[in-house]
Fold:
Amino acid sequence: MKFTHATLPQRVVFATGESPAAVAAEAEALGGSKVMLIASDREKELADPIAKEIPVVLRHEEVVMHVPVQVAERARRAAVDASADILVSVGGGSTTGLAKAVALTTGLPIVAVPTTYAGSEATNVWGLTEGATKTTGVDDKVLPASVVYDAALLTSLPGEMTVASGLNAMAHCVDSMWGPRADPIDRALAQEGIRALATGLPAVADDSTGVEGIEQTLYGAYLAAVAFASAGSGMHHKICHVLGGMFNLPHAQTHAVVLPYVLAFNAPHAPEAEARIAQAFGSGKAGAGLAALREVLDAPRALRDYGMPEDGIAKALGPITKAIPDDNPAPVTDENLTALLKAAWAGDPIN
Structure:
């Protein structure tokens, strides 16, 4: 057994119903006295109680999916102009992503308060979009110093977004089984993440206000992100990043659609990973376990439903092929990748 595993330094606080006090404590521990609070107008009701407990010098509400470069530049200038010494983000992946973009150039610490299951809060990965191209990178400056998980903040998350966001977290787990730096620790974390998500998501889908289901799903999403941060971005995420940036597709729904097709593509060539995934689902086969969960959740099914044009398949083929890691379990050709993308675009059944 030979591998090198890096564990990222981060405090994680689970504090159901207590996020205002928990965020204040984390900001104080980090020496923050001038907070730039990043939260979109949609998250105002969730962010207001937190804002009352911390020394806010600026509230920044311009949050845009995929973090366009010009949006990031405006936020960076605002942070400097306000002399902020700490960032607090309250929201989903786009909000956390904007905080990361600010931290990338300013070095300011982040306290992240997630309101979805995106998982960005537990990684040192940043992403920016310019034109139709999404660029990602890795830098420890963007890793939030603290994460505060408050299940009460997710009780108002719409059901469809809960499903898509949770399956996005599931995709982190699956990619962590065979990412370019995947190791046994990543696979153990990812397997437990799959089990927790497969337990929590049906409970949340059945009762969107049920705190126990939300807590289990948040726990799974956190494990997923930690595993993914170490294992690196595999085939699934490379496909989704290219498609998301090129066609401005919704992030979580794109991941939810593409996941079963990539799992079916790679699983026959990765028997250990396939067995771990199946066991986590409590199923004989990984694909069957995921399919059963998706059926219960009424998961997103086709990329065309979210605005991807059919002729975009040919346009995306080259950039995706270039981005997929060379050590992907299954050999990738123009023919089999085109078939995968066509099936995901149409929402075809998986054999």
Notes: The first helix runs from residue 19 to 29.
